[in-house]
Amino acid sequence: MDELELEFELHPQLAQDCIVLGDFPLCRLLLMNDANYPWFILVPRRAGVSEIYHLSAEEQVALMRESSILAENLADTFAARKMNVASLGNMVPQLHLHHIVRYESDLAWPGPVWGKHPARAYSESEIEEIRQKLEVLMASEMTSKSS
């Protein structure tokens, strides 16, 4: 573990809004606690990073690989019509990539999900179901963690 990973702390807003699902080699995997949309977030476990270009070249490649693996698995698992993947950081400066499974039938389609509808918190059983789906599909890529 290098110094930047040792100093890593999840931004308080992400900690408040999300459920920790596990870790990839570089990123922490979060589930946005909004059951209106299957919405996941990758956060590189590096202190003081707010932009992709702040990562080393090797870490940039790792981030894109982890994002692609996650997006592909989410699209397959949740039968996505479209995967929205974005890094905005306007409200939370810590580098994080949103991975949102979209359907033509979702509440915000075809617009963005931000601020469209009040969040609906997941039940414990819904969280466990998502954990099980992702553990089976991604066991070789991530280390499971409890919330």
Description:
It is a single chain. By secondary structure, the protein is α+β, with helices and mostly antiparallel strands. It has one domain (3-108, 119-137): HIT family, subunit A. It contains 4 helices and 6 strands, in the order ααβββαββαβ. Strands 4-5-3-2-1-6 form a 6-stranded antiparallel sheet. The longest helix has 21 residues, at 57-77. The two termini are 21 Å apart.
Topology:
Blueprint: H1 3-6, H2 12-17, E1 18-23, E2 27-32, E3 39-44, H3 57-77, E4 82-86, E5 97-102, H4 124-138, E6 143-144
Antiparallel strand pairs: 1-2, 1-6, 2-3, 3-5, 4-5
Quick recap:
By secondary structure, this protein is of the alpha+beta class. The chain has four helices and six strands, in the order ααβββαββαβ.
The strands making up the biggest β-sheet line up spatially as 4-5-3-2-1-6
Structural class: alpha+beta
Domains counted in the coordinates: how many?
1
What kind of sheet is the major sheet?
6 strands, antiparallel
Please give the share of residues in helix.
Answer: 25-40%
Within CATH, the superfamily carries the name: HIT-like
Regarding CATH, which class?
Alpha Beta
Q: Report the CATH architecture.
A: 2-Layer Sandwich
pLDDT average, as an integer? 91
Stated plainly, the CATH topology is called HIT family, subunit A
Overall form: globular
How many helical elements? 4
Rg calc? 15 Å
Low-confidence stretches: none
What fraction of the residues are assigned to beta strands by DSSP?
15-25%
Element order: H for helix, E for strand: HHEEEHEEHE
**In whole angstroms, how far apart are the ends?**
21 Å
The number of distinct β-strands equals 6
GO molecular function: catalytic activity
Pfam family, one: HIT
Protein name: HIT domain-containing protein
InterPro entries: HIT-like, HIT-like_sf, HIT_Hint
